[in-house]
Amino acid sequence: MKLMGSLTSPFVRKVRIVMAEKKLDYQFLLEDVWASDAILKINPLGKVPCLVMEGQDTIAGAVFDSRVIVEYVDTLSPVGKLIPERGRERTEVRTWEALADGVLDAGVLVRLEQTWPERTQAQRSQAWVDRQLGKVMAGLTAMNHGLGEKVWCSGNHFSLADIAVGCALGWLDFRFPDIDWRSENPHLARHFEKLSTRQSFVDTVPRLA
Predict the structure, then answer these.
(1) 186-195 and 160-175 are packed helices; what angle lies between their axes, rounded to 10 degrees?
(2) What confidence tens digit (pLDDT) does each residue in 65-91 have?
(3) For the chain, where do the domains classified as CATH 3.40.30.10 start and end?
(4) At the top level of CATH, which class does the domain 87-199 belong to?
(5) How many CB atoms within 10 Å of residue 167?
């Protein structure tokens, strides 16, 4: 399998961590969607991550959107099941993932509003930035409350919920180092410190190519 993505995308990182935890082999292909349209041959949405099945190089052989990819990848190996198969436990893990991804979605919108070169300073909206940052902070508060003193986000073991949360927090540190999310969210701070020692997290720390 081939995974197309970047070293900075938290959604790509989520997939890479899942692949590592599942001990699956794949080829990682760096793809800058802002500098090239090559991804459009595989994913018509022009986004990463995109997983290309072995022996395939067309849209028909591609899986895209991180949530779809990780769900598929989790079925490929019995090692370290990350998503419960059914019931309330499955819903809880996927809800954690949706919350973490939602924090990222809002954060990405803030970054684009502040840095996209096609917009002049006069065209940038501070009201829009504040609205999206409000979503980020509300999401972090909810995650901190939901985690509490628990060892893991959901259930009694490491799961996709922890991966998604860790990727969101790591990206915030990478792109918004001035946001002091730790002081108001001590449970998340503790959890992120623990997650950051796992080899799958160490190997995928976001960085510029």
Answers:
(1) 100
(2) 999 999 999 999 988 899 999 999 999
(3) 2-73
(4) mainly alpha
(5) 29
